[in-house]
Amino acid sequence: MYAITGITGKVGGVAARTLLAAGQRIRAVVRNADKGGLWSGLGCQVAIAQMEDAAALTRAFTDVTGVFILPPSNFDPEPGFPEAKAVISAVRQALDATRPARVVCLSTIGAQALQSNLLSQRTLMEQALSKLPMPVTFLRPAWFMENLSWDIDQAREQGVVSCFLQPLDKAIPMVATADVGRVAAELLLQDSGKRVVELEGPDWVTQNEIASELAKALHRPVRAQAVPRENWGMIFRAQGMRDPIPRIQMLDGFNEGWIKFEGNGATLVKGNTSLAEVVRKLVG
Ligand SMILES: NC(=O)c1ccc[n+]([C@@H]2O[C@H](COP(=O)([O-])OP(=O)(O)OC[C@H]3O[C@@H](n4cnc5c(N)ncnc54)[C@H](OP(=O)(O)O)[C@@H]3O)[C@@H](O)[C@H]2O)c1
Q1: Is 173 exposed, middle or buried (0-12, 13-18, 19+ CB in 10 A)?
Q2: Among 19, 32, 21, 34, which residue's Cα sits nearest to residue 64?
Q3: pTM > 0.70: yes or no
Q4: What is the separation, in whole angstroms, between the first and last Cα of the chain?
Q5: Phi, psi (5° rounding) for residue 186?
Q6: CA-to-CA distance for 263 and 68, rounded, in angstroms?
Q7: What tens-digit pLDDT sequence spans the chain (284 residues)?
Q8: For residues 261 and 276, what is the distance between their CA atoms, to the nearest angstrom?
Q9: What is the DSSP secondary structure assignment for residue 229, as one 8-state letter?
């Protein structure tokens, strides 16, 4: 039996379906009973837990072989990352109480970076869970290709993609969530010691290539356009963010090259889903 958090989302959903297809039993960890219906219909047990609730997570992780931890995204954290720390504390307590044989924790490219930025939330997670007695695999995927779903409306309506990753011809590692979920499931089935697995797609991707794939899928010209850095804070605040600084620091990290794969003993895995496949699926 494998407990899967984040199962109603992209990565957790693929991880669970991969395990089901391999004949494994699943405990779907969801936030409320309504969200469990699909999964109980597929033969899964359902447990109700918020990621901040140590007691509920302990019940969800009891008597399972493996646990997949998907920490919730927070693009606009309070100073000092208290929301991420609440999740880390609850997850650490629940894993310590239940001691599953295997844990795979979704982390991120750049979790090893020393400079503070949005991804420091995962640095803190890795630091805390590394101290647990059982082997934990930290899966550090590249930038999700699905992030470009935010750009589709603008591309369709204006023929433009506004880019914060710059310069526009700089390739960075990206990966499809289908590959992240599949690899997470495969790692859960493997016995290992503590390890870091870094995951990228078949090719690194530039912003110009994203525009070009969107053009093909939308059957109209689309060009990438760099958003001047001095406007980022104003734009993110206008979108409702209280504090855009951690997100800007993360973008700086990608653009300046200090958010990158660590290498250094980590295993590098390549997914097989191409940018073109993801764009075609998102555009529908
Ligand atoms: N975007 C990137 O480029 C990138 C790169 C590397 C790593 N990551 C990591 O990928 C993860 C996001 O994965 P995804 O795209 O699959 O996410 P997603 O599709 O947005 O799904 C998020 C999942 O988390 C659940 N969830 C959210 N808050 C929760 C809470 N407080 N308690 C319990 N469950 C909660 C959601 O449940 P509901 O259905 O109830 O909302 C949903 O199942 C994050 O950890 C992020 O750091 C992202």
Answers
A1: buried
A2: 19
A3: yes
A4: 34
A5: -60, -40
A6: 23
A7: 999 999 999 999 999 999 999 999 999 999 999 999 999 999 999 999 999 999 999 999 999 999 999 999 999 999 999 999 999 999 999 999 999 999 999 999 999 999 999 999 999 999 999 999 999 999 999 999 999 999 999 999 999 999 999 999 999 999 999 999 999 999 999 999 999 999 999 999 999 999 999 999 999 999 999 999 999 999 999 999 999 999 999 999 999 999 999 999 899 999 999 999 999 999 99
A8: 23
A9: G
- Please tell me the distance between residue 74's alpha carbon and the centre of ligand 1 in angstroms: 9
Amino acid sitting at position 276: A
For residue 221, how far is its CA from the centre of ligand 1 (angstroms)? 32
Q: What domain count does the chain have?
A: 1
Which residue lies with its CA nearest to atom 39 of ligand 1? 8
- Helices 10-21 and 177-188 pack at an angle, to 10 degrees, of 50
Q: Which domain holds residue 38?
A: 2-283
d(CA 103, CA 190): 10
* Sign (positive or negative) of CA dihedral 161, 217, 250, 83: positive
Cβ atoms 45, 28 nearer than 8 A: yes
Query: Which CATH number is 193's domain given?
Result: 3.40.50.720
Residue 272 has, within 13 A of its CA and on its CB side, a CA count of 2
Ligand 1 site, residue 149, Cβ cutoff 6 A: no
d(CA 95, CA 122): 17
CA distance 87 to 273: 31
Residues in Cβ contact with 13 at an 8 Å cutoff, skipping those fewer than 6 apart? 7, 181
9 in contact with ligand 1, CB cutoff 6 A: yes
Measured from the Cβ of residue 111, the count of other Cβ atoms closer than 10 Å reads 21
